[in-house]
Amino acid sequence: PRTMEASTKYFLTQATASTLLMMAIIINLMHSGQWTITKVFNPTASIIMTSALAMKLGLTPFHFWVPEVTQGISLTSGLILLTWQKLAPMSILYQISPSINLNILLTMAVLSILVGGWSGL
Question: Which in 17, 38, 43, 98 has the greatest CB count within 10 A?
Answer without folding.
Answer: 17
